[in-house]
Design brief:
The complex is a heterodimer of chains A (about 140) and B (about 170).
Chain A (H helix, E strand, L loop, with lengths): L4 E7 L5 H12 L4 E7 L8 H9 L22 E4 L17 E3 L10 H23 L2
Parallel strand pairs in A: 1-2, 1-3, 3-4
Helix pairs in contact in A: 1-2, 1-3, 2-3
Chain B lengths: L5 E7 L5 H12 L4 E7 L8 H9 L25 E4 L17 E4 L12 H23 L8 H13 L6
Parallel strand pairs in B: 1-2, 1-3, 3-4
Chain lengths: ~140, ~170
């Protein structure tokens, strides 16, 4: 039986932060968590900076692609994480009774690789701990 | 004719003024065809007293109005939503949450009348202007030929209603 918890990471474009979060959670919490991500206005592709930053960290990027929240609405989800900065952008609501946490990160979209690397470090530092705590892992 | 009323949720930030006004107005104008609800992303927990005054003056019921978080409508027992309208003011840097899934959605932003500075009269005036704007938009909404519009035309009409200018303009 698969006892992994499914974590849905949500932001707007599903191109930078939520993709990096998906890859980082799947790596850091590999035995306990299956992370997926989605956005309310999915971009055509994952940002190059996000892919590069993940590769620099030695993480796989093959399965990452932007998708709409509607595509994951029917999945069994144990925790929803919103990573958008709701002071600046429209955060998605996940209209199902699922525990959720909000851990906003700066959107590195359009910025140099160093910004993506910095956001990646923050995600690794803050989000992994927050997900662990929320799921009592 | 629909077998049940169409459920409409109005979302703003505080669920204290705009979305409350919209809920009260639509429940009145909808005459049983629509059931309106409202919620906020950061509910203040209290309906704006000027809003209650105005609604009372207009003879609209206020007993069931209260400020609450949107997660009330994410619960299994929550009504199935047909429409979700956001009424926060993106222009003022207020950010509306996005409600994914099946309901028809549109952004019907307007300035927060509860944020107006000034004396009692200025505050009452701001609420009254917001009431008029929402009343116009909702009058347009309830007169849409819903059964005759396909999803794309309906979305266009809903977006147009949200562009309806404020009475000041």
């Amino acid at each position: 039986m698969n006892s992994k918890k499914t974590v849905l990471v949500l932001c707007t474009g599903n191109s930078c932060r939520s993709q990096m979060a998906e890859a980082i959670l799947n790596h850091e919490l590999a035995d306990q968590v299956r992370a997926i991500s989605a956005g309310t206005r999915p971009q055509p592709k994952v940002a190059d900076g996000a892919i590069e930053a993940l590769k620099l960290a030695g993480l796989p990027t093959e399965n990452l692609y932007p998708k709409d929240v509607d595509a994951v609405m029917d999945e069994a989800i144990d925790l929803v994480v919103t990573v958008c900065d709701n002071a600046k952008e429209s955060c998605p609501i996940f209209p199902r009774p699922v525990p959720r946490i909000h851990t906003p990160f700066h959107d590195p979209h359009g910025e140099p690789l160093a910004s993506f690397v910095a956001v990646g470090d923050q995600i690794r530092g803050e989000l992994v701990a927050a997900v662990r705590a929320a799921l009592k892992l | 004719m629909n077998e049940r009323p169409l459920n409409v949720l109005f979302l703003c930030t505080g669920n204290s003024a705009r979305s409350i006004l919209a809920e009260a107005i639509l429940n009145h104008l909808g005459q049983g065809r629509f059931q309106a609800f409202s919620a906020g992303s950061q509910p203040t927990g209290q309906v704006n007293p000027y809003v209650l005054d105005l609604l009372n003056q207009q003879g609209l019921p206020t007993e069931s109005l209260h400020s609450k978080h949107w997660d009330v409508f994410a619960r299994p027992e929550a009504p199935l939503l047909d429409f979700v309208f956001t009424v926060c003011d993106n222009a003022a840097g207020e950010v509306c949450p996005v409600w994914p899934g099946q309901p028809m959605t549109a952004h019907w932003g307007l300035a927060d009348p509860a944020a107006v500075d000034g004396d009692d009269a200025a505050k009452r005036h701001a609420i009254s202007m917001a009431f008029r704007l929402l009343h116009r938009r909702l009058s347009l909404f309830v007169s849409l030929p819903l059964s005759k519009l396909d999803a794309m035309s309906l979305q266009t009409r809903l977006n147009q209603i949200g562009q309806h200018p404020s009475p000041d303009q």
